[in-house]
TrEMBL record:
Residues 1-24 form the signal peptide. This is TRAP transporter substrate-binding protein. The keyword Signal applies. Keywords: Signal.
Length: 329
């Protein structure tokens, strides 16, 4: 007579046992994370801190192994590897995310942000959160955003105004928007991976490039392009992304551990950034760099046609309007 309840409890316990067993089996995971920045870069430091936190919070069951310095290739390659299941996580700048989700092109719009506070309000507020969801259907999920200051031009000869850029060959993270920036300034854009810019500058394949101060110094581009013009044309953040397959295959608990550690890494990275800019500037000067203060007006004017292009394209116009709406909050 007791068979029925016994059977019922057996039926119940078997799937339960199986679930807990399979959870235990997948609980121990090592996530592979590759990026193209130097180990001294504050994004690397923030990722390193995140990896430690994940390991601690999971009681050693979750680990993140970081492959820095482009040893697995540039973002183009690592994003593809992630989509193919060969890598779990990587870092891409907004420009590098643009081929997957056009919304990210908005960060290449010159002089879009009024100041640093406006930029951070966008990046870490509702607009930024919505932007981060744009890759979900592309096979990867954005889980952290990192500030990257402003990008400026640097070259072998001084650039004091757009007129000086006429005929120059400038390396960019090539996208339709960044290419147009260079063309509007009278120069021509060159598609060269981050890790090959030093040699390209040294051999005279290009005349200049553009980046923030930490990347200018840490890549040693300063040795081969001594003039850094502070035109600050764009503010392009970096994103930490994880393969959707990996993310969706995790338990809620595992996802919560990663989400919290990723959030903490954002805070830590922001704390380090400003100091890193000052430090890189000083170090670059010690190596002979000249920082040139310029009137941004001629750059702003030359680049203003990009705003008309964005207004004409509904898919990006809405993001531009959303960001502009955050300017005076
Ligand atoms: C910056 C940015 C990187 C990007 C690089 C580049 O350093 O942080 O994410 O890859 O610029 O210009 O390629």
């Amino acid at each position: 007579m007791k068979l029925k309840p016994l059977l019922a409890s057996l039926c119940l316990s078997v799937p339960l046992m199986m679930t807990s067993m399979s959870t235990a089996a997948v609980e121990k995971i090592t996530l592979k994370l590759a990026h193209n920045l130097d180990q001294e870069h504050v994004v690397h430091k923030a990722l390193d801190q995140m990896a430690k936190e994940i390991q601690e919070e999971s009681g050693g069951k979750m680990r993140v192994r970081i492959y820095p310095n482009g040893q697995m290739g540039g973002p183009r390659e690592t994003i593809e590897m992630m989509q193919n299941g060969a890598l779990d996580m990587t870092k891409g700048s907004a420009s590098e995310m643009e081929p997957f989700a056009s919304a990210f092109s908005v960060f290449s719009l010159p002089y879009l942000f009024k100041d640093d506070a406006h930029f951070k309000r966008v990046l870490y507020g509702p607009v930024g959160q919505e932007l981060m969801k744009q890759t979900d259907s592309k096979g990867f999920v954005a889980i952290a955003a990192y500030v990257a200051g402003t990008r400026s031009f640097y070259a072998k000869k001084p650039i004091n105004s757009p007129a000086d850029m006429k005929g120059m060959k400038i390396r960019v993270v090539s996208t339709p928007t960044t290419n147009k920036i260079i063309e509007l300034l009278g120069a021509s854009p060159a598609l060269i991976p981050f890790g090959e810019v030093y040699t390209a500058l040294q051999q005279g394949v290009i005349d200049g490039a553009e980046n923030n101060e930490p990347s200018y110094y840490q890549t040693r581009h300063v040795e081969v392009a001594k003039f850094y013009t502070e035109d600050q044309h764009t503010s392009v953040p970096d994103y930490l992304v994880i393969a959707s397959k990996v993310w969706n295959g995790m338990s809620d608990e595992q996802r919560a551990i990663i989400t919290k550690a990723a959030r903490n890494s954002e805070v830590y990275q922001q704390k380090l950034w400003d100091e890193e800019v000052t430090n890189s500037r000083n170090k670059a000067q010690e190596l002979g760099a000249t920082f040139i203060t310029v009137d941004k007006t001629p750059f702003r004017e030359a680049l203003s046609p990009l705003y008309d292009d964005f207004r004409k394209d509904a898919s990006v116009a809405e993001w531009m309007t959303k960001i502009e709406g955050e300017a005076n909050k």
